[in-house]
Amino acid sequence: MSQSIIESELATSETPRRFAPGETLFREGDDANGVFIMQSGEVDLIFSPRNGEPKALRGVQPGQVLGLSCVVTHRPHDCTATARTECETAFVRRDDFLRKLDERPATWFSVLRFLSSDVNAAYDDIRAMSAR
Amino acid sequence: MPTPYNLKMEDHCTTCSHRGSRPFCDMAPAAVEALDASKYSSVYPKGSLLFVEGEQPRGVFMLCSGRAKLTTTSTEGRTLILKIAQGGELLGASAALLGRPYEVSAETLEPSQISFIRRDDFMRLLSSFPEACLHTAQALSEKYASAQREIRTLGLAQTTSEKLAKLILGWVPGGETTSEGTRLQILLTHEEIAQMIGTTRETVTRLLSDFKRKKLISVKGSNLFVLGQQRMQDMVSI
Lengths: 132, 238
Fold this sequence. Notes:
By secondary structure, chain A is α+β, with helices and mostly antiparallel strands. Chain A has helices spanning 3-10, 68-73, 94-103, 107-130; strands at 14-19, 24-26, 34-40, 43-47, 55-60, 65-66, 80-83, 87-93.
């Protein structure tokens, strides 16, 4: 199951959004009001301590979907996403996304595989970070 | 009736007393009946390996009761504990969904009742019941959120004592309030605590002694009492 399938399922609900380097897609603590399907460019995921400087600890590449787990669990974003380079994304509002899943249950399989890949990518980052 | 390890066995999902409080299992009757029909339930002793990192996925494991540690190996070959899974958690779902090897290993920390669902049966359950998809998505999202918290700790904590204080504070909500402080039952060894915060057993032993000397905690057998929760909170900047 590839990005193109989730995109084709959601095509009628998508709004293209472009971000210049340094622009913010969403901020830590914001409500997750939709998902961003990354089409081109790179995004930094920035984590803020209670005291001290925020740090970019992870990166997001084309093909990944940002905000998926927060939309599914109705939780606020746990980090800030900022464009590292010029980015093109397809944005799908939360309500449209959830309605599409109700209408087309088969879409669930792509969502579950994206979430599984997100979990694996996070584990890869943990393995790399703990070796530093 | 006697049961292995004196565990209260739940033979059927349909009559399980935990169902209402377990996000994955709390589904409509038809979905629960399908889950019940496809699972193989057993009791595992402490230290049982359910699956290992790199193994081809055979299916998913529902931790009906007990606890299990999820571990991985760093690029330097060090063991890391990513999460202590609690009763009600679904294990191995990402590997089963992607058809790729398990990314982590899962080992029971205490006698546990586990229900195994073969991969084909799990996929059939998801195809038949969108509610099962939603609950699986929520289970995966919880794993992702937990991994993000681990990344925050690894990337932002300034010192190992800050990591240890954060770990202990994370256990407080599950503790018992007593006149001596919040009582936590710690079934982890110093080695396992070290694997949770990416340090050595010797460092954990030294830091716990330091915390005791500062009267932040006291330890009696497997019970750890948190005496200075606010002072520990002040040590944590993340």
